[in-house]
């Protein structure tokens, strides 16, 4: 039964929701926001957070208090090694790190009954690389199907993916190579709601506006994406930042502002009880938007990890194929080739000076 205090935060019944968090600009607080979303989801549904960053570039081991004390087989590498290993519940239970979350203003009696998962109180599971930071990074799958199978195997209904992909550069590179980008793969799924995070600065707002424009021109469903602007500096952003944000407001499903939080900037997410009420309200607003957008995904065949692992880079130049007319009718015109060969769609003349 849905309780009054948490009804707006509940996902549709029986739907396994994926929330990939992408950084539209550097220093945007992507990992922090991913943790806040998991914290907001945890009291109402079984939640897992997957950190795709290498150990040396990820704060999660420190936030969890794991440090370098855990065995190498524990954590994300224990699930991904050796390559081709199918997902199984026993490996996941060994790999995840459980993290309890404070209820805040929510009363325990208002929470939905999640059975044995709530025996130790509300919390979420974290799947991250918790080995010593000197260990070589593992190859984390990009294909959303792997994460969907992860939720199903582990019995989770919400999965927050803290992605380490440089979104803008990766998407443009994939478009120029005539192949789908990581965001293309996520945007095709009805059970996934991408979240684009940027810093509350003039540059951050400009980077977000440019990215949204590119995605719209490429025909991606930006009306099912959520943009989040995080104040990471504690100072008032420039006034012209609002003008940049106005260019994307209304085109996206939602645009949410996350205020500056002194506790987070001092200790990250090491102490969840110190996170400000306004910060958690912003995270809950994002969760409400996700709950209104997510839909069941059509059944799909089970795939092995080696089928969705990143393919090795080829040294052959990409073959440019003319893009088909997108849903917005924004096809590309063939550009002249200065080498004298046939025209190639997507060719861009070199800059002079």
UniProtKB/TrEMBL annotation:
One of its GO terms (molecular function) is ATP binding. Coiled coil: none annotated. Transmembrane segments: none annotated. Residues 308-318 have a biased composition (Low complexity). InterPro entries: P-loop_NTPase. Keywords: ATP-binding, Nucleotide-binding. The keyword Oxidoreductase does not apply. Gene3D superfamilies: P-loop containing nucleotide triphosphate hydrolases. This is Energy-coupling factor transporter ATP-binding protein EcfA2. It comes from Actinopolymorpha pittospori.
């Amino acid at each position: 039964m849905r309780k009054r205090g948490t009804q707006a935060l509940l996902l549709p019944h029986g739907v396994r929701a994926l929330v990939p968090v992408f950084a539209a600009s550097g220093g945007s607080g992507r990992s922090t926001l991913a943790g806040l979303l998991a914290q907001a989801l945890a009291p109402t549904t079984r939640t897992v957070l997957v950190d795709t960053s290498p150990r040396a570039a990820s704060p999660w081991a420190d936030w969890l208090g794991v440090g370098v004390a855990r065995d190498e087989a524990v954590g994300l590498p224990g699930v991904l090694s050796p390559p081709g290993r199918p997902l199984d519940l026993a490996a996941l239970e060994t790999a995840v790190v459980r993290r309890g979350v404070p209820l805040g203003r929510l009363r325990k009696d208002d929470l939905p009954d999640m059975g044995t998962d709530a025996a130790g109180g509300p919390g979420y599971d974290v799947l991250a690389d918790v080995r010593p930071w000197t260990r070589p990074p593992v190859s984390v799958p990009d294909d959303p199907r792997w994460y969907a199978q992860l939720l199903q195997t582990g019995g989770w209904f919400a999965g927050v993916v803290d992605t380490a992909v440089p979104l803008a550069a990766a998407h443009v590179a994939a478009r120029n190579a005539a192949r789908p980008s990581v965001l293309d793969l996520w945007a095709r799924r009805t059970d996934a709601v991408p979240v684009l995070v940027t810093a509350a600065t003039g540059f951050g707002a400009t980077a977000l506006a440019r990215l949204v424009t590119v995605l719209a021109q490429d025909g991606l469903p930006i009306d099912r994406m959520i943009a989040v602007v995080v104040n990471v500096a504690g100072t008032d952003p420039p006034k012209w930042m609002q003008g940049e944000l106005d260019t994307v407001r209304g085109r996206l499903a939602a645009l949410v502002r996350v205020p500056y939080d002194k506790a987070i900037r001092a200790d990250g997410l090491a102490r969840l009880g110190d996170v400000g009420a306004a910060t958690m309200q912003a995270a809950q607003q994002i969760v409400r938007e996700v709950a209104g957008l997510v839909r069941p995904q059509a059944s799909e065949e089970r795939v092995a990890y080696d089928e969705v692992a990143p393919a090795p880079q080829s040294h052959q130049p990409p073959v440019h194929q003319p893009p088909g007319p997108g849903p917005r009718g924004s096809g590309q015109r063939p550009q002249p080739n200065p080498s004298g060969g046939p025209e190639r769609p997507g060719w861009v003349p070199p800059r002079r000076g």
